[in-house]
């Protein structure tokens, strides 16, 4: 068994070491091949480790950093002033091949800018994209990208997202994934120039199993294995799903926590309903990958709790095992070759 | 009491006269001031009226048309070949002031193109926009536009949507509505140029109560009274909300229809939950207005059933009562004046 080393930005997120340290310790017990480098303020990290009564081992390393990139910093500013920050050091550990992947709950824009600057893009990729696996009604997954790394893109980038998403999904599914473009529904307005041109490109690419357009209401319905869209549309649609699910979940919880006889019976008989509905909320699955880089970078929610961050670390472990960047490179090469001839 | 005449495209939608005729008859009994002109194939309409045992009255008029615009027709083709179609005649009745509003469940693109061509845009408006009122968790409404009339827009149009949405919401609420722009969340990527420029314009416009950006997860959460976005984003976000709500509703319904003792208890405990969740699904509220025209046009879902179409006819009645186009004109004039000085 090969070791997998994950550099964890211990200062990122709303809760810093009080969440990142316990998450690292939990992840170590879950993934026997895992080694974690906790990057951040060493005294704070040690305090947390002592509180947990953690028995030091070679599988957990602490790498001190003096500074933190705040959530309000602009990416351009963060880029110029990243020296000695926990996020920068964690990314650099991947760049220097001292870590296989980096996980951070910190400033999204800074994470993207720094990753791109330090790790560089894969050949053939113009822009990285944030991807996550949405849950679907049948218990499958639909990978959706971009989720906000790019507020606007051109058709070439959207096409590259399709190739990257297809490569990622293929590694999970073990078969050629069905790839679709997110579009608006009315037959008579078949979307903007962007989706039309990308559809044309994908139709001409036989190595991608392009199945056409899907609409916003089909996202959690197994309509495709991979759905591509620009980052503005993807971010908004994903959050619209999450917001709606959360709203209904709150209503359901109110029923199940009522201190009436109805509430008691509901709690005894239907507590599994909460789990079922929760499993359909994309928000439950923490850890979006930044695809298109020469290294593995996982973005965790800023508000991630311990178990959510463990999920994101697990995502990093899986991507390392599956060698996602290499697989994307191979697929890109094949597609570029096909498009040349 | 003034009469309100609604021209109903009797041939539009997936079910034609079998839905439109009963909906017209129901609407007449609901709205005492209403007069309906059913436009379509007279024999088919009469068959339906006879089946319903409808007692003819001056409140229901049938206007024969020979042709129908099919759902698969492109707007440009429909525009050139609209002569004698039910949709065209219904719109023309508004244009000639023989009707106060038009309602159609037919081809969306054709309805928009024909309405724009026949009724013309209000002065100061570059593009019409589809708007609907989303339900919110507190039982209020949030008007969202554009929902797909335009696959892409510029900042001027988005600004005009904000003015139109604000005028419409003000007529409902009786106070100055809070207006927001839909944007992606991450602090560091505050959206694309479109939303940034529109935000700047709205910030400078004191007659609009602009409150800033909202995100996709806030749509059903009372974050604003009016939310503007381009038609691609709006259509996708709305459908994402609808798809998620429907999925969870289906899960709940499965529990409630189980013919086991648990199913029986679930029906006792959760039947009102279904109603509550349904009320949060934007799909339940049929009838989107096409704003920005010199007349009132309501687009109903193609799949609308009788009660959904009655809801859309009701929407037309309310807009006529509130003189929405006039109110939009007034607001636009005020805003243009303000922006000049």
TrEMBL record, chains A, B:
Pfam families: FA_synthesis
Top-level lineage group: Bacteria
One cellular component term from this protein's GO annotations in UniProt: cytoplasm
Localization per Swiss-Prot or TrEMBL: Cytoplasm
Keywords: Acyltransferase, Cytoplasm, Lipid biosynthesis, Lipid metabolism, Phospholipid biosynthesis, Phospholipid metabolism, Transferase
EC number(s) recorded for this UniProt protein: 2.3.1.274
Pathway: Lipid metabolism; phospholipid metabolism
Molecular function GO terms recorded: phosphate:acyl-[acyl carrier protein] acyltransferase activity
Catalysed reactions listed for this entry: a fatty acyl-[ACP] + phosphate = an acyl phosphate + holo-[ACP]
Enzyme class: transferase
InterPro entries reported for this sequence: FA_synthesis, Phospholipid_synth_PlsX-like
Function recorded in the entry: Catalyzes the reversible formation of acyl-phosphate (acyl-PO(4)) from acyl-[acyl-carrier-protein] (acyl-ACP). This enzyme utilizes acyl-ACP as fatty acyl donor, but not acyl-CoA.
Subunit-structure text: Homodimer. Probably interacts with PlsY.
Protein's recorded name: Phosphate acyltransferase
Species name: Vibrio thalassae
């Amino acid at each position: 068994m090969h070791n997998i080393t994950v550099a964890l930005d211990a200062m990122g997120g709303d809760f810093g070491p009080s969440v990142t340290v316990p998450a690292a310790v939990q992840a170590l017990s879950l993934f026997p091949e895992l080694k974690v480098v906790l990057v951040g303020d060493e005294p704070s990290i040690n305090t947390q480790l002592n509180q947990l009564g953690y028995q030091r081992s070679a599988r957990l390393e602490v790498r001190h950093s003096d500074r933190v990139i705040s959530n309000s910093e602009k990416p351009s500013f963060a880029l110029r002033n990243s020296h000695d920050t926990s996020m920068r050091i964690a990314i650099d550990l991947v760049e220097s091949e001292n870590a296989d992947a980096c996980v951070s709950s910190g400033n999204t824009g800074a994470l993207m800018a720094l990753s791109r600057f330090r790790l560089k893009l894969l050949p053939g990729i113009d822009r990285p994209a944030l991807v996550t696996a949405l849950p679907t009604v049948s218990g499958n997954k639909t990978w959706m990208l971009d989720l906000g790394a790019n507020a606007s893109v051109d058709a070439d980038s959207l096409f590259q997202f399709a190739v990257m998403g297809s490569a990622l999904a293929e590694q999970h599914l073990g078969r050629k994934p069905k790839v679709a473009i997110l579009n608006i529904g009315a037959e008579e307005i078949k979307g903007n120039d962007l989706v039309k041109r990308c559809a044309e490109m994908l139709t001409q690419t036989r190595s991608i199993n392009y199945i056409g357009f899907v609409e916003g209401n089909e996202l959690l319905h197994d309509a495709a294995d991979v759905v591509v869209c620009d980052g503005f549309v993807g971010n908004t649609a994903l959050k619209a799903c999450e917001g709606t699910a959360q709203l209904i979940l709150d209503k359901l919880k109110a029923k199940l926590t009522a201190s009436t006889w109805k509430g008691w019976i509901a709690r005894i008989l239907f507590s599994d309903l909460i789990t079922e509905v929760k499993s359909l909320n994309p928000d439950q699955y923490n850890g979006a990958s930044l695809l298109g880089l020469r290294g593995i970078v996982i973005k965790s929610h800023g508000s991630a709790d311990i178990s959510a961050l463990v999920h994101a670390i697990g995502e990093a472990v899986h991507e390392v095992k599956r060698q996602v960047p290499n697989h994307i490179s191979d697929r890109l090469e094949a597609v570029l070759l096909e498009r040349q001839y």
